[in-house]
Amino acid sequence: MTTGGKSFPKTGSTGDGFEIAADLGHKIIEPRPALAPVIIKNYKFKMLSGISLRNKEISLFRDNNLLKSWSGDLLLTHRGLSGPGIINYSRYIRSGDIIKVKLLNYNKNELENNLIKKIEREGKLNLLNLLIKYPLAQRLIEKILEIAKIDGSINAAHLNKKERKEIIEHFSSLEFKVKKLAGFHQSMVTKGGIDLKEINPQNMESRIINNFFAAGEVLDIDGDTGGYNLQAAFSTAYLAGIEISERLKR
């Protein structure tokens, strides 16, 4: 069985294999979109679609608990977040989770000290012109100031402590609340499928049904971007094909 998962259903990959395998007695790990963009609740960056953020520290929180932290590239879209640093970890992301992005390579104390020194040296500049000295897109900085309700045209020296804290908070931990993952029509692969415990990894034969083989995305296998999922499909199909060929010769 090489029916694929549920991703890109226009290609005919509608998840039929999961139903067939389940009817035959196999356990199916719940299929979910993987390698998918993330749609953000109350998203405020629609007009910044296309801005990329390179090698940023990203943290995932659920119920106020840190689940994972990693670094990667991400992309602001018209509905939320994408890019390798997001889609490679989308398998872990759930509705209601909080994603925090560290925009600059400073912790909060370091950033505050750095910003204070900039203001001491260049306080006559207006605030926006001071902040664009940081390696961030000007449109992103303008949007953050808008969200924080801070006037970017004021002299930087006139920035009060509360406003400074707001800027530091956004720059060091820009927060997004997950509405949902993009659906199977946008996900590159399917997470879930036939439980691997029920498949012999030597030849991809079912452990519960003789002469039933499964390969590719119908199995509970999913990897990062970069060809890993294609390789998994090719390799599992090769193992199954070799075994079937040998049996036909007997």
TrEMBL record:
<protein>
    <submittedName>
        <fullName>Flavoprotein, HI0933 family</fullName>
    </submittedName>
</protein>
<dbReference type="Pfam" id="PF03486">
    <property type="entry name" value="HI0933_like"/>
</dbReference>
<dbReference type="InterPro" id="IPR036188">
    <property type="entry name" value="FAD/NAD-bd_sf"/>
</dbReference>
<dbReference type="Pfam" id="PF22780">
    <property type="entry name" value="HI0933_like_1st"/>
</dbReference>
<feature type="domain" description="RsdA/BaiN/AoA(So)-like Rossmann fold-like">
    <location>
        <begin position="2"/>
        <end position="241"/>
    </location>
</feature>
<feature type="domain" description="RsdA/BaiN/AoA(So)-like insert">
    <location>
        <begin position="32"/>
        <end position="189"/>
    </location>
</feature>
<dbReference type="InterPro" id="IPR057661">
    <property type="entry name" value="RsdA/BaiN/AoA(So)_Rossmann"/>
</dbReference>
<dbReference type="InterPro" id="IPR055178">
    <property type="entry name" value="RsdA/BaiN/AoA(So)-like_dom"/>
</dbReference>
<dbReference type="InterPro" id="IPR004792">
    <property type="entry name" value="BaiN-like"/>
</dbReference>
